[in-house]
Amino acid sequence: MKFFIWIFTQKNRMQKSISFFISFLSLGAFSQTTKDISNVTRYEYELSAKTSKTNLENISTTVCALDILGDSSIFFDTANYERKKIRKNPKKDLSPEENGMLGLSFRPVFNWFVVSQGKENRFYSDINEDYKYFVVEPKKDIEWVIDSKVNKWNIYSVQQAKTTYGGREWTVLFTQDIPLHSGPYMFNNLPGMVVKAWDSEEHYVFELLSSKKAELDWKVLSFNDHIENDRKRIDKAIRLNNNKTYLQIFDEKGIKIGENGRAGFNIKIGDGKNDIYIL
């Protein structure tokens, strides 16, 4: 069954997404060098992730960006951003094939991104290439148990906090040495800046690397092609999609696979996946 049957009204949701994008750009704290580019303070995190349940020895790494724009932020995988950037703005001195190869040279660990503004987080992702969504979640929904003890982590004085979110038990280190209430993933409602976060199995570990001034190209990020939905409906849709085989998807799209190759695609999409958000 098509996922869009769960959408309340696509046109209205699209308009809400566009209006959010416009309001996001219009904040007075933004310093834009052109119509489409914003100057930001970028905090870079290294992510080490075990994305396959069937091969937990394999660790994928990437650099994530937390871009701060006034009292708002956006968190994303820089490899995914660079890949999208090549697709939207191909290098003029390269052929289409060379641009394609350059884009594939960037290997993101994840393709979701989180926009934080006011009292809300917006989680943007996709179920498949045909359905992109975002979920709005109040920041206060993530409740923390904070340890009052202060320790040192690198150059920062930090406290430890714990929470359960998205099917995982998380521990973070946050500091008041950086005057921000922000951090990686959805962790931005603590009295300080999150410098490290890891789940209880250490399948996902974020560590702050550095900060710098950077430019964020908004043309690369797509807000208006994501449709708002609620978490329960999205989780149900993801389960349905994960239970399909690649062969079923090909058949639905009318893609013909020769008999000799069909067995190799008769594997469920969700088999072995170890996403950051556990259903």
Quick recap:
Keywords: Signal. A hairpin with a 4-residue loop joins strand 12 (193-199) and strand 13. This protein has 6 helices and 14 strands.
- CA radius of gyration: 20 Å
How many strand units?
Answer: 14
Q: Uncertain spans, ≥5 residues at pLDDT below 50? A: 1-34
Average of per-residue pLDDT values? 86
Classify the beta-strand content into a percent band. Answer: 35-45%
Indicate how many domains the architecture comprises: 1
| Number of H- or I-type helical stretches | 6
**N- to C-terminal distance:** 20 Å
Task: Give the topology string: H per helix, E per strand.
Answer: HEEEEHHEEEEEEEEEEHHH
| Oligomeric state of shown chains | single chain
Which key terms come to mind for this protein?
279 residues; alpha+beta; 14-stranded mixed β-sheet; 22% helix; GLPGLI family protein; GLPGLI; signal
